[in-house]
Amino acid sequence: MTRTKKPRKRRTKRPQKKDPYPGRTPDNSRWAKGNQIWKVRSSHGRKPIFQTAEALYEACIQYFEWEDANPWDHEQLAGSYHGDPIKTTMYRKVPYTIGGLCLFLDISHNCWTQYRERTNYIRVCQYIEDIIRRQKFQGAAAGYFNHAIIARDLGLVDKKDLTSGGQSITPSKEITVKMSPREAEKIYKDFIKKEGK
Predict the structure, then answer these.
(1) Which of 51, 128, 144, 151 could form a disulfide with 156 if both were Cys (CB 3.0 to 4.6 A apart)?
(2) pTM of this prediction?
């Protein structure tokens, strides 16, 4: 059985669309250079989710109340009675976080940063961040939260230089098989001198 090629359909030219604005040229169009059409807008950009600092403050207080009303719970073995284990439900406080606040407010972290930069919202945002910092610090101090994680989160790392005595640390050279005996001897003597100081 042989196949025969089907004849190709000829492409027809598509009819050109009519110009909705006949007579316009690049010089007199509404997008011409130097136009002022953008001034016609009633507002520039989307309105903020929280119109006032008070509205943001109230929403943040709702987040704190929600976190306090919804602690994490887990079962813990409390002991045994006649060989049967007794389990109790323990409730753990949850630390306030900026990330949790942003999720609760349904905004991004970037949006929170933009609120912090606006002059009307600066005091409220600083106050909210101070509340979060204080709750984390006091919760870690009282033993509610893991103190190491909270200290790292709050930047409370105690950095001490225990090795160099305040001097810059220079890496020591290692003695390798490929070295000549003289090079190895020199490195060893330098090491002994440093240890003797």
Answers:
(1) 151
(2) 0.56
